């Protein structure tokens, strides 16, 4: 009997050791999981899913596979712009969950001003009513076969690409919390240009944004037709003059393949590309809280970034850079266009 009990105790100890070892989840060598996500270990009070104490855009699941009180831990990341809600057991927008991960209002921001909805309806009604009535009554008896086939194919393709409703599918949702409504910007409406103020400076000045499918011009956002929106400063500014093109020969913009699926474009105006796939694979959206652990916002920081360079043959190449030479807690910020220090005290716990 004593030998039988010793064998049972030995098996329990081995199972406990294996549970601790396997329960560590992905190691820090896996690039998908940053150091601060896996270390120090998160607490598993019981089986279930919980928001990450150091970043609300991550959550972890605790599983006691052996039913002996030792948990396997698995980490997951929410979609950009969302945080994990413990009660709903899913990722939601910040206004739908309570602090520390959300605002707790439970309702979306108020509707936009009355001016934007008048923009999209004005374009479509003007063209279609005028074209069909004039053509069919005069032409049908003499040219039924030739006129209908030539007119429909040429008219629709030329008009839709110029209209605002075709933009939203390609936009990169980047809601700006400086407004009281969900206004999103994309690269098309916020091009990277070199402005003279009076010294040359590269900026992403926005000429408008989208609320759902409605395009809102910067004149309506800023209340002044001569102003544009500065995403970095989060304020409306006067539109500065663009710098003249340099006289020296510069290499043309060229797509640089990173692998079979992803590419980015190098140019004199954008030497650090910020494509969506780069941000999703190399960057993390950190949740920030104040001294009372109340959610105050988020910051997108990247452990690596691509740096475009001109070769002596006047073509483009690139290197993969990081901020490790600045210090252990330094990461790259597209908003600041350089390396910034991540203050651990600002992270939500």
Count the DSSP helices.
Answer: 6
Number of strands: 19
Q: What percentage of residues falls in helices of 4 or more residues?
A: 10-25%
Task: Give the neighbour order of strands across the main sheet.
Answer: 6-7-10-11
> Would you identify the regions where 5 or more consecutive residues have pLDDT less than 50?
8-28, 156-173
Q: Quickly give the structural class.
A: alpha+beta
- Which overall shape is indicated by the principal axes computed on the Cα atoms? globular
Order of helices and strands: HHEEEEEHHEEEEHEEEEHEEEEEE
Strand content: 25-35%
**Assembly classification:** single chain
Through-space gap between termini: 50 Å
Could you give a short account of the major beta sheet? 4 strands, antiparallel
Cα radius of gyration in angstroms? 27 Å
Report the mean per-residue pLDDT as an integer. Answer: 75
Describe this structure in words.
By secondary structure, this protein is an alpha+beta fold. Helices cover 20% and strands 28% of the residues. The protein contains 6 helices and 19 strands. A 4-stranded antiparallel β-sheet has the order 6-7-10-11. Strands 1-2-3 form a 3-stranded antiparallel β-sheet. A hairpin with a 4-residue loop joins strand 10 and strand 11 (235-238). It is globular and about 70 Å long. It starts with a helix and ends in an 8-residue tail after the last strand. Mean pLDDT is 75; it is low at 8-28 and 156-173.
Nutshell version of this structure?
With 349 residues, the chain is α+β, with helices and mostly antiparallel strands.
Write the layout of secondary structure elements.
Blueprint: H1 2-22, H2 35-38, E1 48-52, E2 55-63, E3 72-77, E4 83-85, E5 90-92, H3 119-138, H4 147-158, E6 192-196, E7 200-206, E8 208-211, E9 214-217, H5 218-222, E10 227-230, E11 235-238, E12 254-257, E13 263-266, H6 276-282, E14 283-289, E15 295-302, E16 305-310, E17 316-321, E18 330-333, E19 338-341
Antiparallel strand pairs: 1-2, 2-3, 4-5, 6-7, 7-10, 8-9, 10-11, 12-13, 14-15, 16-17, 18-19
InterPro entries: Chitin-bd_dom, Chitin-bd_dom_sf
Keywords: Signal
GO molecular function: chitin binding
